[in-house]
Amino acid sequence: MKKERFKNILLVFLVIMNFVLGSKILVDKKLWPDGYNFFSNVKNLQFTKLYNDIKSYFAVEDKLKTKVLFPENIVVNTGDQTTRISLHPNDADFENIYTEAEPLLKSAFSSDASEISTIEKNELYSALSSNSLFLEFPRNFSFSLFSELLGNPQKVSSVTFEFSNVVISYSPRASIYIADSENDMYYKINVQNNTEKLVEKCNECLESNAHNLQSVINYSYDLKFDKPFGTQKTTLNPFIRIYSTKINTPIIESSNPIIYEDGNLNENIIYDILRVFNINSGTMRRYTQAGGTEVFVENNAILKISKSGLLEYSATDTGLEISSTGSEYSNILNTLRITSEINRAIGNNCVMSLSSPNNSEISFDYMIEGAKVNVLGDNLSSGVTATVENGKLKRYKQLLRNYTSTPESEESPEFFSSLDNAISQYSEYMTEITVLVQTPGSKTSEVLV
């Protein structure tokens, strides 16, 4: 009986794939001379919409969700400041640990509001002082968006807080702590997941780094820097990490993949990028602006690629449809799909970190060796910026770059000297200073002229 059921499921799948691939040929291919597409009106038919929905479903890969939710830092806590280990995404143990931690997060973020308890922050501090993980994300997430990106349907509509820090306590039982530091609110969710594999990966990490512990790691609350003291009115987010020694970081080199050494543009990359935006290279118009920027014009869009590597796309009508629902979740993932396809074309394997969706604005930053690349210029403030309205892409910008780590390194500034400099810089204008976030210090900056 089970065998027959499996055969039926397989047959249905094969029929659907045959239908999908056949409709793709009808929609995408120019089957008639002189660029005439007999099937151009097919795009208005229902089965084409079905094809596009199926295509979008499979295009939003699980790995895109994972990359959006990659923390920029994981700290393995052992109950002793001298043996805490800080990991960034390029460390060998990072992905192993996060892979085992993700199911716990998924369980916690599928909870109903009644299962989320408000706690005092001292209880969270206690978890950080025992066997646990501290996950620092590069931006604030709403509970519902984080849950959806983990693969859960949106269930908890009454939970409205945002957060960027999560603690996973895995001994003796699993609990997830969420810190809304900006509002000084803290939450706890108990989960029933087995933590045996997570404990195993954490122990492997501790063993492999036992002889490579270069710095004692204190959280701000360990040193009471989260509270005002005497005449000093500067306080730090309790989860800012303070290292006892200076940290060496590798020097990063960047290269522009769009241009050859002789000054000519890489046409192969250009045509790959045109396909990402559904611009037909056979029917578009192309011209070169003063300064060498290549402009590609089709009926509904304009794409510009400068020799400096700045890509700019703008829709001239309703926009390029990238999401049938227009939800924040779908807009983010499908914008990231476009970014990933462009990065694949230029040979860039960097993790793209979600910076800050703000209504219709979505931005991503290149992450290299666990730190964000700063983009400085009038035309772009992040590696990628996009405007998506009602599921349609209106504008998109990306700085086309490849980044590589060099054998050379530089020493980061000493923490207390940097803090004193920051305080002296702002104390003239304000009597109380609260430092909410810890910027790990970008390994490289891109300046656009």
Entry keywords:
449 residues, alpha+beta, 10-stranded antiparallel β-sheet, 7-stranded antiparallel β-sheet, 25 strands, 30% helix
Please give a structural write-up.
- This protein has 449 residues and is α+β, with helices and mostly antiparallel strands.
- Helices cover 30% and strands 29% of the residues.
- It contains 10 helices and 25 strands.
- Strands 12, 13, 14, 15, 16, 17, 18, 19, 21 and 22 form a 10-stranded antiparallel beta sheet that branches.
The helix content is: 25-40%
Low-confidence stretches: 26-61
What would you report as the Rg, rounded to the nearest angstrom? Answer: 25 Å
Fraction in beta strands? 25-35%
Distance between the termini: 68 Å
What is the overall silhouette? globular
- Tell me about the largest β-sheet: 10 strands, antiparallel
In short:
By secondary structure, the chain is of the alpha+beta class. 30% of the residues lie in helices and 29% in strands. The longest helix is centred in the N-terminal third of the chain and has 27 residues, at 2-28.
